[in-house]
Structures are given as C-alpha cells and as structure tokens.
C-alpha cells in the first residue's frame, strides 16, 4: 500500500506542474494590472511603470515564471503584490475558518443525509421516499445565499439565537465556535445533504436488489441489520466518493457562504485576489486547492479498501 | 454507526486513524488565527472596502487614506471652512511669500516612542511630493526644503505658490502624512512595510488580516491640540480603547450586523438598503462629509469620433445628469445635478461654461450639433464595468442617451480591473482602444483646478486618460497657483472651467453622497474629508 501511496503522490507532481504553468499563463493573458490597483486613479504612466518595476512585473514572462518556480522549490509561495504579506501567511490566516466550516458542514451533512437516503431507499416508492426526494430537489435548486439569508432572518435577527456574521476559532472555546459555525454550516449543508442523500438512496436501491440481501432477509435477519450492516456498507463506495469530492468542492466553493456570513476564509481570499490581479496569491491558492483535491482523492481511494475487502492495493 | 466500527480491522484502522489525524490537524489550524481581544471600549466599523495597501502615499485608494488618518498626523490640517490650520506644527510665512517656516509643537512622539523631528517631516514631505500631483507642483516652485534644527522645517520657494498651505493641509488622497525618516526614505514606488505614525491611534500589526480586519489601539502618549476638533484640524482625542474595521463584502450582511448590534458603524450602506436601517430606532444616519462625490464621463480625444470637439459637445449635450443620478443613486434625497467641475457647495463652485440643460440633457440640440459636425457613424466604444455598483449604471444610461442623439454605440462589458488597464490604452478603437468611460471622484479630489485630474490637460505627456492636450488650461493653472486671494483664485478657476467646457474636456454628471449609519451608543461623531474616529465616545 505504501508503494501505491508513493506512486499516487509522485503522479500528482506533474499534474500540479501543469496546473501551475496553465494558471501562470492564464493570469498573464488576462487584462488587469496590479500596479494600477496599488497606485489608484490618478497615477501617471511613469509612476505606474515604477511600481511595475518594483513588483518585478516588467520582466519577461518566462523570467517571471522561472522566478516563481524557483521560489516554489524553496517552499516559498511568494508575497502578495497588493498587501505585501507572504502568501503562506495569508493562506494560514484563511485556511482555518474554511477547513473548520467544511468539516462541520460535511459531518452535519453525513449525519442528516445518510439516514435520509436509507429511509428513502427502504420506503422506496412511498410518500416518505417522495418527500425526501422533494427535499433534495429543493436543496439543490434554492441558491445558497437565499437559504443563508432566510436562516439569518429567522434564527439571528428574529429569534436572536445566533450572531448574524463572523467566525470564532475553536481556540476561543467550543461555545462561540459552535454559535458562529451553525448557520453557515446548515446553509452549506443544504446542497450536500441533497447530494449525499440522493446518492445513498440510489446506491442502496441497487444493492437492495442483490441476491445476498434477499438471502439475508429470507434467513430472518432483522431489517435494521440488513439495511445498515449488509446493504449500506456495500453501497458505501459511491457514497464515499461523493463525500470526498464534495469536501474538496466545499473547500474551494464556499465563496458565497463566506460572504453572506462574513467568514474570513479561502473563498473570499480567492475572489479578492482575482479582482485585484494579485498573481502570487491566486497562484498559491490554486496550487493549494489542487493539492487538496489530490490529497482527498487519495484518501477516498485508500478508504475504499476499508469498505470493500475485494479492493486491494 | 456500529456497523462500521465493529468491522474495522488492523490496516483499515490505520487508514481511519490517518483520516482522523487529518481532521484534527485541520481543526488545529484554526488556532493559528489570533485570539479575540480582551474587553475595553471598542468601536466595530464596516468601512466601504477592505484595507489591503497600507501605504497612504503610494496609493490614492480611499480606504488607505482613511487608515492614514487613524495612525498618522499632518503638519497642517484643513478645518470645516476649508482653511489650513496648525496641527503638528505652527507656521509662519515671510512677507515676500517665499519662505514658510514650520515649527513642531512639543510632546510629539512616534508610536515606537521616539520623538518626532523636523528631519522626519522633511523626508516625509519629499516622499509625498513624488507621488502627489499637488506636491509635485509645490516642489516645482520650491528652491529648498530643509530641517533647520530638530523642530524647524523651512520651505523656500523660487516664486510665490498661492496654495502652499492648502497643499500641506491637503485633506484627501494623497494626504501629506508624517512618518519617521527611516520609513519615509522608502522609494516612492515601493510600499512601506512599517506602520509607525504619530497619530491618535496605533496600528496593531499582529491582528491585521489584509482585506478582512484591521485593528487600531489608542496611542496613550498622543498629545492632542487644545482647540475643539473641526474636520481634521483641532484636538484629536481618542476616547475609545480600540477601533476595529471589519470588512464585510456583502452589504446586506453588514446591515444585518448593525441592526443586531454586532457592529457600531457602517461607512457606505447602499442607498437602496437604507430603509432597512431607518426602521431601527437604535440606528442613525450620519453625513460624515459635506463634500459630495462627483460622477463623470471621460471621452478619448485621440481618435474619432471624439477627436472632433463638436462631436464631443454633442455627446455632452445628450447626457442629462438627472437620468444618470436616478439610475445610480435612485433616491433624490441623496443626489443633485451640479454644473461645477469643482463640485457644488465648495468655494470655487461655478456654472461657467456648462450647458444650460446639464440636468436634463438636450437630445434635439445634440442631434443638430452632431449633424452639423458631420458625424460619419464611427461607433462610440463605451467601457462598461459590471462588478462595481457605483460605476455600473452610468454607461447603460449614457449609451441610451447617445443612441437617442444619433450616435452608434457599442457597450463593452468588463470588470473594473480590466477597465482600469484598458483605459490606459492609447490604441485606436480597432486595436483595443476606447471612446468613453465613467468614474467617480470625491469632492476634495476635484475641488480646485490643481487637484482636479481631468484639468491636467497635458495630452499624451502625462495628462489624464482621454489625453486632451490644451496648453492654455495648463497656463491658467499656473495663474491659479500664483493667485494670492480667494477672489483671484475664483476668477481664474471660472476661466478654466469655461475653457474646459468649451473643450468638452470631460462631462461632470452630477453629485451625490451616501450617509453612514451608526448605532446610537456612539456619540461625538465629527465631519471631515474622510471618516474620522477621534472624538467618538461609546456608551456601554
């Protein structure tokens, strides 16, 4: 298995290299000038040029690329052109809130969605099944920001159970953390509950038609055991895949939720950096996100063998 | 979930452990963020944008100027009557108007505890003058700028420069803020990295998150002036222990937060959301500056159709300020048509040269003039930013007005950043050029012919985008600089505006303001050229 992990990690390096080159070129081809953002509206062309020179943006693109790659080789993601803060510091400040939010959302989603999906599959074709599926369609179709605002209006403004915005780290105590993470996590979970519940239902329905389930039932095994021990476990691989890729999507896709709840996470950092054409920050973030995708895919692949003994590495 | 737990065997348990470890690691990262601060009076404010660039000399960004007023101080300051007043220094002007002597007052300290010296201030002024248009002009007139002793700064001029004191007290971007010499010696093209000022608040570096949060603490050793505060002049007394600027990119979130008492101050609520706060008796509106913001359109005179002055005038006639303002702001309580290129309600305001129909536009006159000019159907390419709400509506309204007048119009949607790059292009339309774009200026950026960037008509040699080349206006600006009294200045400014309207140098499209919101637990808010946080008290 160690050889497999090593192979996967090594295979990821050229992938990330291509991503890095692609992102670098794409950014340089996009119009927009970080120097203009720094200098503001009234800067003269000479002043802009001076700022561009001090940022190293006047150098030929291949030189800029080589500089960046050699920085990367030393584990240095560079410095933000706009705020002059090291990219690693910026990411360090923002990674915590996003990861926390993503983890809480995922746990919440799994706790809600898996039983929902099991219930729907068990009661296949009944009113309960239809109800669960209708909820899933709703979760998919209502935009995240609408759900966010509704939750804020009801639970923060009317009932005053939660603050309307902000983030608190676990270091400040579980209470404040949970208070501030609840509404955004439920908002984000609305999509993932729908996604995971549907996948659980579909996957479970496939398995419930298998011979061994019929055999188990014929042997008089309790329905609870049939569902959770025999069926769910065997349908877990696709569910886990959805959860894994969903987690990666969560990390890179919480932009709207972070804005609505004013959470200083990676999503907002990405938007800020793109709007300001802050090249080192965008490059660093895309590399990080690609790395997270690779890592999570690897984790998902490895966990297959836990669930399906036929899978060996 | 025991179905899962009971069946986990050796190697699988290891894998599970790895997954658990990863989660723990992820949660642990959250502890990297700084811990919440202990009690004390704290004002939490949402400003119009997040602070990213910390150097108030390198950038004209307003959020950085606001940051500058928190931690830096100025030699002279402008009061509510637009008059320069002593702040860090008292001043004396020689009878011939050529020597300005500034003497630092006692007790001035930098935030690192060292005393403020004249040398620090000379270095600060020199760096500021490299970046600021007004400062550059002042230095063109200067023979020397030196520190005579630890407390005395001497500025000697070659010939009289009327607005010298106004320039030293310049209230908006770029403000001549004072910094220690070692910081002020940073090249003017590089951002400073050390935030040491001598103002009423200190910058808390450990809690700064660019674009997210910036924290200021009261500077205990600041010695305020004795006079009552008036704009940026007078005593700057910090009554609260901390000020936190929390950036909220979503205006609705900020409004919810002020309604709920999670923040105390919101600098720029969108006008259409104001009714949501007006219903709350704990929230009041505050006009933090008497200066309006001017919205305007700039034509590119290098290529057809706007290389023809008659066609420019036709476009100017077609554009009615009220239509633009209604689309931009909506509520007439907050906007007004204004013919003055210097803004309305300021000392130099004048309607000289403006079309009589500036408020409504005159499509018929525009059509007639366009015909007379022999317009050949060359399209007007309008740059249309879609991502900034304060500049998104103007192009759409203008396009319709120009079409009504007979122009062929192409709207090119893009984000503001692309626009900022694109407008610098001096290429013809077919090669990525442009004909017309829109932007906004706050009052203090247009209120005199010296600071108004659009009246810097140096053409391709350093003029504002659009590149009108009119040496006559440049000559009149010199005349303005030499004027000694306000009446003389007014007379020249009026002539300049007349000429600029004849040129159709740019099209002012009216003025507006957006009130700030604050919770009634705050008191003592003062007006100024920027949102100011001294003199504010907060009730617990």
Can you walk through the features of this model?
The complex is a heterodimer of chains A (313) and B (540). Chain A is mostly helical and 313 residues long. Chain A folds into 2 domains: 1-74, no CATH class; 88-307, MetI-like (MetI-like fold), CATH 1.10.3720.10. Chain A has 14 helices and no strands. Chain A has helices at 2-29, 34-39, 45-55, 61-73, 87-122, 127-141, 144-158, 174-208, 211-218, 223-234, 236-252, 255-260, 266-276, 279-307. In chain A, helix 1 runs antiparallel to helix 14. The radius of gyration of chain A is 24 Å and the shape is globular. The N and C termini of chain A lie close together (5 Å). Chain B is an alpha+beta fold and 540 residues long. In chain B, helix 11 (321-328) runs antiparallel to helix 13 (393-405), helix 12 crosses helix 13 (393-405) and helix 15 packs antiparallel against helix 16 (486-503). The relative contact order of chain B is 0.14. Chains A and B meet through helix 2, helix 3, helix 5, helix 7 and helix 10 of A and helix 2, helix 8 and helix 14 of B.
Note the main attributes of this structure.
heterodimer; A: 313 residues; mainly alpha; MetI-like fold; 14 helices; B: 540 residues; alpha+beta; four-stranded antiparallel β-sheet; globular
How do the helices and strands line up, and which of them pair or pack?
The complex is a heterodimer of chains A (313) and B (540).
Chain A: H1 2-29, H2 34-39, H3 45-55, H4 61-73, H5 87-122, H6 127-141, H7 144-158, H8 174-208, H9 211-218, H10 223-234, H11 236-252, H12 255-260, H13 266-276, H14 279-307
Chain B: H1 2-5, H2 10-29, E1 42-46, H3 62-71, E2 76-78, E3 84-86, E4 89-93, E5 99-104, H4 118-131, H5 133-141, E6 142-149, E7 152-157, H6 164-168, H7 181-184, E8 201-203, E9 213-218, E10 242-246, H8 251-259, E11 265-266, H9 274-278, E12 283-286, E13 293-299, H10 309-318, H11 321-328, E14 335-336, H12 363-373, E15 380-385, H13 393-405, E16 409-414, H14 416-422, E17 436-442, H15 471-482, H16 486-503, E18 507-512, E19 516-519, E20 522-523, E21 537-538
